[in-house]
Every structure is written in C-alpha cells, then in structure tokens.
C-alpha cells in the first residue's frame, strides 16, 4: 500500500516520503525530555526548550509564502550549483530525494550529480542537544570538491517579542564565536537576566562562518538565493543586533566512493554557559558518540512501544495502534496544544481539558510522568472547582489568556485520575497534597479536587436541572452566553452576560460518566458511603437528562440563555449534534429504554459520512450571536459541521458499549489517517497522524484535513481502538477482556504491559461473533468471567480468550 508521495515502512516504523513537494509540509517531532524540534520533510521547523513561547531557540516564520521556508538547512555547493538535500530552500532539482520520518528522528537523503548527502536529525534522550548527523558521499567516478554551508536562524528566546517587537529586538541580538567558527553561541540577553546560551556547533573543521543574516543571506534575498552559498565563501560576520544566525562553511574533497561523516550540534545550555557548550560539542565529536546517542533513542522507543503491540486483521489498525497513534499520543504529552504547524507555540500552552484527555493515550507508556502531569493540572484548579483553561509549560502557572469559565474543564480531571489509578493501581496519588491555584499552600489532596469538580457542576445547574455551560463546554465555539457582536473582541475571551443560565447536555453526559467513575473508585477504596452519595447525585442528573434532554430521536445539545433548545428538531439549523449523543450514551443514559441505540442510529443517519462523523447538521448558514463562534465558520469547517475528529472515537466507544461492532469499526476507520493515502491530494495532511478536522460535506473542500498532530483525537482514537474494539481494558483489579470486533475477524493478538507484567493475549473467534467471552485461560488455567486477575511478581503471562454468544457486561458503569 502506498500513496503518491510516500509509503509506510511498517517494519522500520517509518513513513517514507519520496517527493518533497507534499501537499502540505509533513511534520515530525524531535525530542522527548526538554528540548523539542519541529521538523518537516524538507528540514523546515524550529527548536525550543520546554516552552515554545518563552524559550524559542530558532526562529520560524508562520504562514509564509512559500510555506515552511525556515529551518535546519545545509547548502551543498558543487561547482556552481547550489542545492539542499531536503530540496528546500534552494529547490534545485534533485536526482534522488527521500525523507524518513521515524520515532523521534527524521532522516533526509538527497542526491545530485554523484553527491549524496544524508542528514539525520534527532534529540538524544537525556541531553538538551539536537544533532544533525551528516554523511556526504561521492558516488561518482571523479574527485569532488564541495563546499557545505549550514544554516539556522536564532530566535531571541521570547517568541512573541521576537516576531513583533523589532524596535527593541533589532538592537538586542548578540553572539560569540569560538574555535575558529566551529562553535557559534547565541548569547542575546546575557548581559541582563539570561544565563542560558544556544550553541550551534560543528564537529568537522570549518573553513569559515557567519552569524549575521544580512551577511549570509543578503538583506533583499530569500533563503533560496542566500548570498554566501551562491557566492562561495562565508564572510566571518559577527551579528550586532538585527538577526543573529549560525552558519558554518566546510570544505570537503571526496575521492570516488569516499564519504565523510560529521555532525552539527544545536544545543541549549541552561547553566554553565560557553564552557559547558564546548564540552557538549567535544562530547559529540568523539567517535561513535552520535551513533550511541541514536541507539539510545531507538532503545527508548523500542521500550515504550513494547508496552502495547497489536496484530489484528486490519493493517491500518495495526500500524496506528502499535506505532503511530501511540507516537502521536506522546506528542500530545510533550506539547499539549502549543506548537505545531497549526499552533504557533505562542497562542496556547497546556490545555486543562486537553491534557487531561491526553493522559488516556499515554498513561500506559509513561505512568510516572502521567502522574506528575495530573498533579500539575490539578494545581491549576481553583478552590471553587473551576480551572484555569491552560498553563504555560515553563512556569506551570495557569492563565486566562485564552479565556476561562469553560464548565466542562474540571470534570476531565476525574476521568484522567481514574484512568491513571486503573492503569497503575497507585491510589497514593489521591492523597497527594495539591492545593488550589487561588489558595497556594493549602494542601488539599487530589481526591478533594475530584470532589470539588463534581461539587461545582452539581451546584451550578440551570432551569432544567442540567449543568451550566459557562463560556462554553468541550465545544469551545458554543458560546451561548456572550452574544458577541464586536468584530474586535475574541470569541474565546468575550464576556458572558450576568447571571447567564445556558445549560449543556454534553456536560451532563460527561458528569454521568465522571460520577460513575468516582463511584467505582470509592467502592475500590472501600468507601461505600461516599460511593452511594455520588451514585445518588448521578441518579439525580440522569433523571434530569432523561426528562429534559430527550428530543424524540436524539439528545438535545444544550439550552441557550433563554432556555431554548440547541440541537433539537425544533431548530432550523444545527438540529442534531454529536457530542451530546456520545456523552449521554457513554454516561449511561438511555441504557434501558433503547434511547441510547436510537441516539446512535440518529448519528448514523444524520451525521455519519464516509470521511467521518460531522459535528452537527444542518450547518449554520449565517452568524447567530446567541450561539457564538460556532456560526462564525463557513459551513463544513471546524465546529460548524466539520468532521471534528476528536468526537468520532467517542462514537466508536459508544457503539462498542452497545456491541455494534460493524458500526464501531467503520467509525474507527473513517478518520484513520493511514486509510487516506489514496486520496491524499484531497486530504493533504500527514497520513500517519490524526488531524483535528476534516472538512465536512457542506464545505467547499470536503475531505480536506487541517490541524494535524495536536488533537484530542489521538488519545481517544487509541482508547477506542485498544479498549473499545479490541477490548483490552485496564481495571482496578486486573485486565478486562471485552472485545467488540467484526464477525469476520477470526483472531487477534495483543501484547500489553500492565502493572509491570507482559500479557500476551490471543483472542479467537471460531463462531464468527462480535463479542462475549466464553472462555478465558490464563497460562492454561480456566478463569471465570472476563477479568484477568493481577499477576504481580510475574514477568509475562499468556491469556487465551475464545468468544461466545453473549457479551460480558461493559466495563464502564
Ligand atoms: C477553535 C476551537 C479551539 C479554540 C481555542 C477556536 O477558534 O475553533 O477549535 O478550541 O479556538 O481557543
Ligand atoms: C480544540 C481545543 O483544543 C479543545 O479544547 C476543544 O475541546 C476543541 N477544539 C473543540 O472546540
């Protein structure tokens, strides 16, 4: 299987791009600890340390024409021809080009006129260093005299200032050069409050260097016609203000068949300044050091992904669940919604609801870091139960820069915490003193936060007894209380009317789900009175949902500020929304009277398309101040009837709850990027990671994806595939096996590390069913039910499951 631009190399866990002119730049991420790089298939992108806004090391120009034209570049000058192995920026035609996006690295190979250059970009685990491992080979029959020029453009650390405050920044920039130009240090801010420096070094002898962009590129040139590579020699420029860059010049003479290997080192030195930077450069100049570092990176990913591997009859599910989906979940751990080709690294930091949902996708990979993330998030909750909507990764302090009063936020903390405890069995997290953002040092524990979350929703209900929506719920664009008419105000930060009473059925469904989770947690802790108390308030909410929010064939989405229904058959547009169907069903509404099934049938009939499930129908054709930002988008895009992928796995899970495997798999595959290679000219985004949105049927460009990488789709697609379809569900007392698979699947295998034990699970389906566990054998011994008990102290156990007529009860109450 392969597309016009590239193909999956499943064995190598790489996506191989064979044409550089992909429909959009196709991105990969470098880094796993503190230093991160965005790296496209032509080497474009930038590097930052911890925080893409406050510690930006290299510069990017957003929304540029051409797209993606700043990055980590190497110019090759061979005779009078100048080319780049990644094609950009010179775009000189290449004889051969290949980009392999792998796990934490990108390897670009370009060849022209018998010269082949390979650049492998990666950040080794444990070091704040981005390495560019270079090999230059003469594949021809005559000696080659080459000149190479490296290029990075430094950012003056605070990215917003850097791209807006030129009256200051043009006079701030400073550099220091050591080792004859092999070690270039970006030292801006050093004379004031910054101790950190950025190093751009080369392990090869250099023939020259530049640090001034005007000198290297030319004030009126683009990077594709940079003056120094075209002219042939570096100028030794020292930047004084303006735009500091790092560029090395190398001279290489290669006999036929000969190659040279060396590296460029882009390092962030937080403390220790230039001497520490030079030590780092020396360390990576040692023979074998870069190869060792790469081997460490590979071992890191081998270890992580060995925790869950899938082998099932669907090749898309296999590669996504075993490799790419987990990889994307790690990107959401590292970056939340901050830095991608659609997120500037300046606008948004770590989102409260976003990161809590992301936990579901990485908790099995990095349980300790997930624990810390949950505690960091909880620390940005306020004592009344509401939350800061985001925090800045460097400071970990919450802020309201992108708004507040999103009244679903706090409930996601219950969902992430319970997922963590089920995965790890570590109930000590519940007793961690976290305190609240507005009462620092107060030391209330995490369980107190979960109660605060539940308590807030209960105490803030509207005329129908349903939760108030506040500024918006999960759907950021459903602003039912702000009535914004001013073009100059942000929809997200606009004020809400005093005493606003709009209610959210989606939050009600999420509350049912979160409360059910808390009931089970309390039972697990042996606190039955608390469990009963939460079960009672859940029942009260369920009654309100069933009596007030059922519309006849689906659940209403919300009630607006005047208590009129939104997402109801009585509306002229926006009659049915996906979110309330998903969360009411997942929360357990409509379970006994067929409403759950009817609601999902309505989703199938009215919202489901071959490209995925549309957020609502019919699309809004005009702006409606009483609904807010949602109606600001043209029909078919984003929240206005786009295929907002994040919601789709919720429906997959909901179908699984009802045992409807064919619908569940169809829903799962509809948004799966790996299925898109054949329609890539329409889809445009990377075929190896989920996108936030695919334009819906009402759009002018249906099927076109946008906003790939940083989306809650990643975590939920992973949960829907592994826990919904394959039914491998971590639970408090063991691993539950509850598959919901198409009848045609005869068998599948999963290896899953759970509480330190490797479970090798084989599920066979001799009778062509879609679920139900007839027999469960653990290491050859029959076990009743569908729960594989905990097996502490073992390294691995084998689990054999045979499916039979009746499905076991769903794991989630
Ligand atoms: C987008 C939403 C996003 C929000 C974040 C809106 O413009 O449509 O998808 O969640 O911005 O602030
Ligand atoms: C993207 C945001 O990151 C997320 O928080 C929100 O729930 C969705 N958009 C839907 O509006």
Question: Secondary structure elements and their pairing?
Answer:
Blueprint lengths: L5 E4 L4 E4 L9 E4 L4 E6 L6 E3 L6 E3 L14 E6 L2 E3 L12 E6 L3 E8 L2 E8 L6 E10 L5 E14 L1 H6 L1 H4 L5 E4 L4 E4 L10 E6 L5 E5 H4 L10 H5 L12 E11 L4 E11 L3 H13 L3 H17 L2 E4 L3 H21 L14 E2 H11 L4 H12 L11 E2 L6 E2 L11 H14 L21 H14 L43 E2 H20 L3 H21 L9 E2 L5 E2 L9 E2 H9 L8 H12 L1 E2 L2 E2 L2 E2 L25 E2 L3 H10 L3 H10 L9 H4 L7 E4 L10 E4 L4 H13 L2 E4 L2 E4 L9 E8 L2 E8 L8 E6 L2 E3 L3 E3 L6 E8 L10
Parallel strand pairs: 37-41
Antiparallel strand pairs: 1-2, 2-9, 3-4, 4-5, 6-13, 7-8, 7-13, 9-10, 10-11, 11-12, 12-19, 13-18, 14-15, 15-16, 16-19, 17-18, 20-36, 21-22, 22-23, 24-25, 25-26, 27-30, 28-29, 31-32, 32-33, 34-35, 35-40, 36-37, 38-39, 38-41
Helix pairs in contact: 7-8, 7-19, 8-9, 8-10, 8-19, 9-10, 10-12, 12-13, 12-14, 14-15, 14-16, 16-17, 16-19, 17-19
The structure holds beta-D-glucopyranose (BGC) and 1-deoxynojirimycin.
What does this structure look like?
By secondary structure, this protein is an alpha+beta fold. The protein has 19 helices and 41 strands. β28 (608-609) and β29 form a beta hairpin. 27% of the residues lie in helices and 24% in strands. α7 (315-335) packs across α19 (713-725), α12 (505-524) packs antiparallel against α13 (528-548) and α14 runs parallel beside α16. The radius of gyration is 27 Å and the shape is globular. The site of beta-D-glucopyranose has 7 residues, from loops.
